[in-house]
């Protein structure tokens, strides 16, 4: 009896396992079938387009790439079947490293710009297909639509290994600002305060918020809240405030040469200023351990009055704040001026948003390039970015207006499918995406249009391949931020910053500065 | 005659204090769990502004419904269940059989074999060679790449081996006298007697397979082949800080709202949380039987 039970179990388990392997293997079998005909057909038969294996840098929220309707629509329009896979959300760079090292034969890999150091390493080690020839032969749209500047950005040792997609922008001059200091406008009106024009007025604003406590928070009153990274990390440094000291960006042009923020005299003054704010209780005491969610929580529950917000997240924050305080209003402060009249929010012109490359192990590199070229065909690109006229969007006075909800459902995620941009037309297309929430254009314009003259261009935004920067950039930025944190909180003395700068230079700061300046001297505009 | 030890007033008061303290402590460990449940059923604005305590605010069940019925969740749930069930059954069979000869000290060379097993507990070949091995076996994107690597846990193997050794030899000897072969002895005598330890190992193995993240992350690339843990990581990590600041504009807008994350967490933890208490019964019995020698 027992024997029978056991043997039945065994049989059940084994057959279950076999079934499973059968299911999983079927797909693998299909793939192999599709690939071999392409290799076998001689010139006489019409070429059967192979199925391309496409690896995306991050998963799609709420659905899978293969199920997303845009994938199917693209397959119809281009005639190429594409099988998508995605890197995991956690430690995707490690997984990508593993996949490329073991020679997985993806045909196209498309990731965000934050993979750039990994990309450069792959290119140096010969893991990527050289695209020069392929683009010459099959990439007429690529050459026509993507500016030579962008194409050259991903050159390593004079060979092109990738195609870059510029960061989304809605203006013809390609500027992009992440966000700014957003203040509770209703508080300012309540206190009868004007926009601070100078740094002193800004300090006064903070002090007034602390004294008058418009949010009725008592001991919990926080005029300005921020996170540890926003003290000095490039791209996140406290916007506006850093600008007042002339150090809005990591590299500053001083008399034609680029000086790193760490060596700039403004850095010491900036840290001293933040330290004084901290001592006066004008900055969130817990900022060192704040995560994004903490900062947002403090702001939306009315404990904090000012915080850095990306312009695209303002609607969500505003909604949450209004639920708690129906009279709440949010607006961006214009950057206050420092003692020499210096001011500004940092802006990135010409920064890349995504990179796309082809691993050497790909079996269909030529078709991959043909496919990418098709995506940049003027009509197909418009279809990809906007959809069908009349169905997804309408044109009013030369402006593209989305038809929701269809536009949101079918094109909201189209940005990750973009490989290179139709750089002339895309700014106008992109504005349609902006219009999906009626408030977004307002916030976007506040930063990109109204404050345009107060934006300080990051000279390193159009940076190409610079080995030293890639190698040590992020580690050094972390070291600097950790030190800056300690100074602001009073653990380290600001007067000893010279020792720190000396150490920074010895640990690689000099090497990086030299490399950056060599490039800058040749490419200054 | 039963002896009753009379409790003094002292005893009662100490008992009360101890009980109170332990109850409070026990309840406090529940608080984070209740908080996540509350977040799962609250409106998104309440979660963002941090107003949710252990009770939902602006109660809504849409988020939970959305998570339960989303195709990806159901798919990954099903895959994880299959992996867990097949993995546990196969694992028990393999370990149960392997441990038997290992428990026979008189077999020549058995100590060396045992040493080889233990060796694998200490050393491994590294991630890339392992990946290449699975790849050459053609198991990438195959559920067996997730079932096979953790199949034989040497730790559990040793536990079962020790248990076999603790069974009285006389049982086996009498069975052999009656003409039983080795296989007969194993299946008719040894395994039925080992039910408690098997139940325990089954529970541990099942939980292990359920929580397995590393192997699926490495070997399952297809979007349709995600296990529950992979799906969870996506849902939660997609709003991870480092991802946010480096993400493109549109990616930031598509973040999963907090309460969706909380719902996904609850939906995935609930099955195991519900099953565990029922298996506890066997687990407790197993420990007790082993301790009292008859």
Report on this structure.
The complex is a heterodimer of chains A (525) and B (294). With 525 residues, chain A is α/β, with parallel strands linked by helices. Chain A is built from 19 helices and 17 strands. Chain A has helices at 2-40, 69-78, 92-101, 116-124, 132-138, 140-145, 148-153, 185-191, 199-212, 265-279, 292-300, 314-324, 365-375, 378-385, 406-411, 426-434, 440-450, 467-488, 497-523; strands at residues 52-56, 82-86, 108-112, 155-156, 159-160, 162-166, 179-184, 222-224, 251-254, 257-260, 304-310, 330-332, 345-347, 352-357, 393-396, 399-402, 455-457. In chain A, the strands form six sheets. Chain A has a five-stranded mixed sheet. In chain B, helix 4 packs across helix 13. Chains A and B meet through helix 1, strand 2, helix 3, helix 11 and helix 12 of A and helix 2, helix 4, helix 6, helix 10 and helix 13 of B.
By secondary-structure content and strand pairing, the structural class of chain A works out as alpha/beta
Order of the strands making up the biggest sheet of chain A = 2-1-3-14-6
How many angstroms does the end-to-end distance of chain A come to?
87 Å
Q: How many strand units of chain A?
A: 17
- Please tell me how large the radius of gyration of chain A is: 27 Å
Shape of chain A: globular
Approximate strand percentage of chain A: 5-15%
Which residues of chain B sit in consecutive blocks of at least 5 with pLDDT less than 50?
Answer: 240-255, 290-294
* Largest sheet descriptor of chain A: 5 strands, mixed
Helix content percent band of chain B: over 70%
Strand percent estimate of chain B:
under 5%
Distance between the amino and carboxyl termini of chain B: 24 Å
Mean pLDDT of chain B: 81
Count of helices of chain B?
A: 16
Which geometry of chain B do the CA atoms define? flat
In quaternary terms, these chains amount to heterodimer
